[in-house]
Design brief:
539 residues, mainly beta, 4-stranded antiparallel sheet, 31% strand
């Protein structure tokens, strides 16, 4: 006697598997409640020293190129004083298998330098020509004595002479533009295990910054000698981890020993400092966000750097733990950051006094970008919010309509499981004079009850796009370009009109390896993930 499966069985089993799979994939943090903040410790004013910025809006100790530091300038503005075309094609996808977060920084002759987090046996620093050719690479990692995989969190910082500085797990490296090692500092002697989150250059030509465990260290850039006694920030550890990284996150891409730490760092868990400091381009004051000394609090520190000492000028309390990297306004009067509760805050750069705070904001993971007219831009999920300098909302725009124009409804039984097409802003925002640039993922959300927080809810990716948008309105400009990988990184314009996009393949790896098996073929995520760099050129 033959049997025939009932119709509902054909879809109920994969539906149940989908729900279970995403439950285990979930990497969300629980909703946080605002805690009472301690009183601020204010400064009397700015340091007496002042220097002028260059014509490129840079501090003079930085190389005068289009993008010499992680967030383009010492202020962390992600602002580049140029414009690009509005229509691009993919010229090259290279450095396959190399997960990359930070943008390439640009030095002598237009050479770009990029860091990666691939497993041992690989190089973690590459020099790239404007045409996308690898010019040289650092010695491959054989042990932690070499430039190791934690270099992925340390964008090469380029000084006025063209030398570059890169941190790794427990060392700080200086390289000449041709790849020769200038010097190496062992950070373990200063009780550092996991090192800097990208270094800065002080007005005295010192190089250093703040380690993930809250130690402020600066060295002479010419020889690597300690320039002054270290400073320990008076904070504590970040919030306890609420989950573990999915087993397929960055599978076959990133150093496995690195993934748990990077996962916690991105979420702001356990770690005192999970961000890159900003440096006031004129006064030289350093700003860093960090976890506070009491649970549920964060702090934005203002730290003064003299010739022979470091001192905390102010401590401005903020919600949650480490928050985002800070950014300084172009006029130097304010510092912006997003706290762990998703609120944009503005702090007086000279005194530490709070100027304003938004009710909602960028979700606690994407640092703000500052436009030429002082508008502050921050992404969260499917949208961008633009704030005026006084804290008023200039505009807010969702990009899910772009995805609805490109993707069909899930169809069939999957229409009961998945959302309509949605957008997810999948890079930091780079802003020019009139337009901005970002990577955008179009896909479908799984049921909301499977996520503990909206902050890191990610759709099943169907398309990854490069999008140009108008800074005055947020409206997309031109036709989006389909990309072969998800970004999770930066968009970097080049002086020849080309663009480089960094990709880590994080979203692709999760869904390709863990969810594809229960999705119908038409909804499956393309792969396997490749990560690497994408070089675009004008159409």
């Amino acid at each position: 006697m033959s049997t025939q499966k009932r119709p509902w069985v054909r879809w109920a089993v994969p539906l149940l598997l989908a729900v279970l799979a995403v439950w285990f994939v979930s990497q969300r943090s629980g909703k946080k409640k605002a805690e009472a903040l301690p009183q601020p410790v204010l400064a009397d004013g700015p340091p007496a020293f002042r220097q002028s910025k260059t014509n490129s809006n840079l501090s003079p100790q930085y190389f005068d190129s289009l993008w010499p530091a992680g967030h383009r300038d010492s202020s962390n503005t992600d602002f580049v004083p140029m414009e690009l075309g509005t229509s691009f094609v993919l010229k090259k996808h290279f450095l396959h298998g190399q997960p990359i977060f930070w943008p390439p920084t640009i030095g002598l002759d237009g050479t770009s330098y990029v860091v990666t987090g691939s497993p041992p046996g690989n190089s973690h620093l590459y020099a790239i020509s404007p045409e996308g050719e690898v010019l040289w690479s650092a010695k491959p990692q054989e042990s932690l004595e070499d430039l190791d995989s934690f270099a992925i969190m340390n964008a090469p910082t380029i000084d006025a002479e063209g030398d570059l500085y890169v941190g790794d797990r427990d060392q700080l490296w200086a390289f000449k533009p041709n790849g020769d090692v200038k010097w190496v500092v062992d950070l373990k002697q200063y009780d550092v295990d996991w090192g800097f989150m990208t270094v800065v250059l002080s007005r005295q030509r010192y190089v250093g910054g703040v380690t993930t465990n809250g130690k402020v260290l600066f060295f002479w850039s010419h020889n690597g000698e300690l320039a002054m006694p270290p400073l320990d920030l008076p904070g504590g550890a970040g919030p306890a981890p609420e989950d573990e990284p999915p087993e397929s996150l960055w599978k076959d891409l990133m150093d496995p020993d690195l993934i748990p730490f990077i996962f916690n760092l991105i979420q702001g868990w356990e770690i005192e400092v999970a961000n890159t400091p900003a440096l006031h381009p004129e006064t030289g004051r350093l700003y860093i966000t960090a976890a506070g000394s009491t649970p549920g609090t964060g702090v934005l520190y203002g730290i003064d750097i003299t010739d022979d000492a470091l001192s905390i000028a102010f401590q401005a309390p903020m919600g949650g733990g480490s928050g985002t990297s800070p950014a300084v306004s172009h006029d130097g009067s304010a510092v912006y950051a997003v706290d762990e509760l998703g609120r944009m805050i503005s702090i007086d750069a000279h005194t530490g006094r709070r100027l304003w705070q938004s009710e909602t904001g960028g979700g606690g993971s994407a640092s703000p970008s500052v436009g030429a007219n002082e508008t502050i831009y921050t992404p969260f999920q499917d949208r961008i919010t633009a704030y005026n300098k006084d804290g008023g909302v200039r505009w807010e725009r969702s990009y899910s309509d772009t995805c609805k124009e490109r993707l069909p409804e899930p169809g069939g039984v999957w229409s009961y499981v998945l959302s309509e097409p949605v957008a997810f802003v999948n890079s930091l925002l780079t802003v020019g004079m009139e337009r901005g640039w970002m990577a955008l993922v179009c896909g479908y959300h799984l049921p909301k009850f499977l996520s503990k927080s909206d902050r890191t809810r990610v759709p099943i990716p169907q398309e990854s796009l490069f999008v140009t948008f108008d800074l005055e309105t947020g409206e997309p400009v031109g036709e989006p370009l389909v990309l072969p990988e998800t970004s999770e990184g930066f968009v970097t314009p080049l002086s020849n009109g080309n663009v480089i996009i960094t990709t880590s393949g994080a979203i692709t790896s999760i869904f390709y390896y863990m969810v594809n098996r229960i999705l119908p073929e038409r909804l499956q995520v393309a792969g396997p993930p490749k990560a690497g760099l994408l070089l675009l050129e004008p159409r």
